[in-house]
Design brief:
Elements: E1 12-19, H1 22-32, H2 36-39, H3 41-45, H4 56-73, E2 83-89, E3 98-110, E4 117-127, E5 133-144
Antiparallel strand pairs: 1-3, 2-5, 3-4, 4-5
Length: about 150
Amino acid sequence: MIYFDDIHVGDGTLFGHYDVTREEVLEFARKYDPQPFHLSDEEAAKTHFGRLAASGWHTCAMTMAVIARHVVETEQAGLGSPGIDELRWLKPVYPGDRLTVRGEVIETIPSRSKPNIGVIRSQNTITNQDDAPVMRFISIVMMLRRPETDA
């Protein structure tokens, strides 16, 4: 199990990859962001996107899927998140893109009121297959501290 005490400023993580499909872009847009440039090649061609583009919120959801899988697979003592800071969509995400999700710890904060918990702030960058950043945000994650043992 990975605990708050195992994480240090400067630590980097490659969370993994996500392959963006046309079907998912359309399905997400129909359900959650039905703007024409997320639903139609013809309408998207009339915009600065030039072609069908994924919703920024879909990019967030795909990113969360990658991060959550990594956290479960590596057995981290995560307690969820109170939110994120500084979310920026930097470039459009298109069907056929391969997203890579990376993070770097920028701050660790032991809780003063709950000594068994700490907060980690990480700068997360999502890039496409050309290594161009498409999204960036700072995550705020609560984690359990390593339990004291009777040694």
